[in-house]
Design goal:
The structure is a homotrimer.
Chain A: H1 2-6, H2 25-43, E1 56-61, H3 67-78, E2 82-87, H4 99-108, E3 113-118, H5 123-130, E4 134-140, H6 146-160, E5 167-171, H7 178-189, E6 193-197, E7 213-215, H8 218-222, E8 227-230, H9 246-253, H10 257-260, E9 268-270, H11 283-287, H12 294-312
Parallel strand pairs in A: 1-2, 1-3, 3-4, 5-6, 5-8, 6-7, 8-9
Helix pairs in contact in A: 2-6, 2-12, 3-12, 4-5, 6-7, 6-12
């Protein structure tokens, strides 16, 4: 850190934040360093800055979202940007306009940043090819959710002071999860050992090629983990045939005190939210302030998004 | 007033504004005094202040609302706060997240104020136990709608110069009305004589214990009233069996010139809106600028909400 | 232009912007001159001004809209106004409140500007009679959409340096189109020759009384045109009986390279959006940067709306 303070951080290598896959390790460090500064600001009495005053940020959400959209909206407003949030299900898409036409329309209004969430994998990449401003991917289909992985990394670093060498278990519906995908890339890059735990029908094929360990037995997968990262069971993305029942899922893949015992005694519990209490996680564990850092994830999420908006806004 | 000017007003006794029931008389006076200052500001050419600059206000509306949500949004913006309005029917609640999880998520983003409207009585109290910031109740089920009662009181004071000793008739669907409940508490506290007028099946049991007079005959209830406060017939909260027809309701409990004659000749008409014209109120009376102060209620509503946001924001 | 620079521009003759029909030619020139200044601002790094700081702008949209609502929202924010956007389908209209009661409620909150879009022709006029602030019509039924016509005029002037003497073809669903109506008024006023092209059942009766030429054959109507203005096929406003099929429509009234050949070789293509690609316009023509100025229309739309908000805000 002494060295990074002397050397001015390398400028971000990307124009857009589309996925962790596109980032270099110095990009990641730059974002996390910047984010740390905003943690304190967000706790202070005056949370308003002029950093992005005069800039226009458009939040383009094709899927409903409470936490991510709120997080980006507050991040932009606290930086002083003009923020316009568009819930696209309520608008001209009804008239049959395509993503591309919507993008080009908004682009012509000269935004500086577009934050997009879309149900299709690759939607943010497509958008980035059609607009002049920076695009921040807030989740595209099953592909990536880079700011989630970045805030998860920041949460781990704040608590464990490092990521390198930690054993991190990611458990649940890996197949449909952009959160899992972005976290696998990022945690690997930062030197963690990643255990992937899922029932066979929710485990992507050839997941090992990403350099992770694969488990279908949760107890084995959680063995000696420093971090237990639970995923949301994406009921809305699955046909019912995947799982015989929520109850059975909870028995085998829900995080319970019993299963958590296999992880390290100081293991931390993470969840990107929103939680299905009693399905993928025991409700008391979710609220256990000694083990769960779920609220901290949300808190640091605003800081990470402020950093991303600041860095990627030209 | 000379005395209150010398003595610095006592600080508000509450952290949250959950209901009139929790307020002391000096709390109420503090809010109304502060609100008076904002009446003038809202009529001026430059309505923007920096009083809440750097603060974050979240409007969390689980029920649709035009006037209350707009009123709080404009109030916050004119005070310089960053305001984020969330219509929660369009968001993660669809994914099965509970009120508490939503609250804790938003809380982690360090808002300074959460304004909540919710269909369940007690929702704002529950929220206030889970968050660090101040909670303002913008209506919870049948329980309370404190800013409505405060703006009603301010409207009466502006016109009648006092509340003490006035006879005030509240007429309509008392059973389902949070507006009635908050007004009964506040008007009693401020020394008015309150007449409650409703058909038997829309009259709460034991309403007399709140120190009000009870009437099922509107003409008797309005006798010599200084203020006639009509309530909205809450069609959406009632099963159709309560009333044989809107027409019958209008005949017995709709405010008509005929019935208004029983009140004092200078009686003022109030309504919290939105009105069902021709059901609970004659459309010409609603618009009679010599008798109706319905528009003034909306106007002073913004001022009262500005006062509440300022006072309750720490 | 030298003269207009010396003479201080005449103040706007109207309180509201309800339709092109109400504007004088000097009103139009004043708006377009003002708009030109904002084109540059919108391309600059700092797009924020304090021109409307302290003012309240309410966007009251009864019909969903991406581009128009966004355009007005960004315009207001960049001018420094407090902007509140209301999608009225999500709010108290569900409770049965009328347009007038909504208007009077909002009016009591002392906005400086209300921007309204409504499905009924004349809604903005009705609103303007009930409120104290300025009303900007963002589209009312089939009647007018004045800012669209103004931005179209500005786009033509930017490219062709004039409007007078140009031959302009407007083609498509004239019957249901407020865009056509406003453009006919404005282009006539500015001295263009206007050709109206539509199938018989989408052509209003007696359209000639507006001083336009009427064609049912697109090739004849486009002959030697400088500007080809395509309209959106308003599927949502039509019963299916008007047209035998989209395919047939495209054959006779869709803009194709083939038909465009009848216009001048340097003819520009315009469309108010959102486009039905492959129905009223060939998708490649829509994107042809040498011929299509569709994106420029959107871009100049923000500038025109900034000018209108500034000029009409008292």
């Amino acid at each position: 850190m002494a060295i990074t303070k002397k050397l001015k951080p390398i400028k971000i290598s990307q124009k857009h934040l589309l996925g962790i896959q596109d980032l270099s390790i110095s990009d990641v460090k730059l974002i996390l360093q910047e984010a740390k500064k905003f943690i304190k600001l967000n706790k202070s009495r005056n949370k308003k800055t002029n950093i992005l005053r005069g800039k226009t940020q458009i939040n383009l959400f094709f899927e409903p979202s409470t936490r991510t959209q709120s997080s980006f909206e507050l991040a932009g407003k606290r930086l002083g940007a003009d923020v316009m949030s568009m819930n696209i299900t309520n608008s001209a898409i009804k008239k049959g306009e395509t993503l591309i036409d919507t993008a080009m329309t908004l682009n012509a209004m000269h935004p500086d940043l577009i934050v997009i969430r879309h149900q299709d994998s690759g939607a943010s990449n497509l958008l980035s090819q059609k607009v002049n401003c920076s695009v921040i991917n807030a989740g595209d289909g099953r592909r990536e959710h880079p700011t989630q992985a970045l805030l998860d990394a920041l949460t781990i670093i704040e608590r464990k002071k490092k990521i390198e060498g930690l054993r991190i278990g990611i458990c649940g519906d890996i197949l449909h999860s952009r959160v899992a995908r972005s976290n696998i890339y990022l945690l690997n890059m930062l030197g963690a050992e990643v255990n992937i735990i899922a029932p066979t029908n929710l485990m992507p094929e050839n997941i090992e090629r990403f350099g992770v360990n694969k488990f279908s037995d949760m107890k084995k997968g959680l063995k000696d983990c420093d971090i237990v990262m639970m995923l949301r069971l994406q009921n809305e993305r699955m046909s019912s045939s995947f799982l015989s029942s929520n109850r059975e899922y909870y028995e085998y893949y829900g995080l319970t005190p019993d299963k958590l015992n296999y992880a390290k005694s100081d293991a931390l519990i993470m969840h990107p939210g929103p939680m299905n209490r009693g399905i993928e996680i025991d409700t008391n564990l979710a609220d256990d302030i000694n083990k769960s850092v779920i609220k901290e994830q949300v808190e640091l999420g605003v800081a990470v998004r402020m950093a991303c908006l600041k860095i990627f806004c030209k």
